[in-house]
Amino acid sequence: MKISARNRLKGKIVEVIKGATTAHVRIDVGGSIVTAAITNESVDELGLKVGGEAYAVIKASDVMVGID
Fold first, then answer.
1. Which of 33, 37, 60, 67 is 20 to 30 A distant from 49 in Cα terms?
2. For residue 53, what are the CA distances in angstroms to 34, 39, 64?
């Protein structure tokens, strides 16, 4: 896979929950869970299944910081 984004985290899919149009895919990256919201069609096209390996690719223009 070649991609321009530098923030890519390889992990194992631990959960795929399909909704009406959008799925939540949870990926375990070194003990931390990253959740992505993608279309059901993308889940099917990529063949995403629990136990499979996948990359969480993070592309953001802003990072916000908050405190209590």
1. 60
2. 13, 18, 29
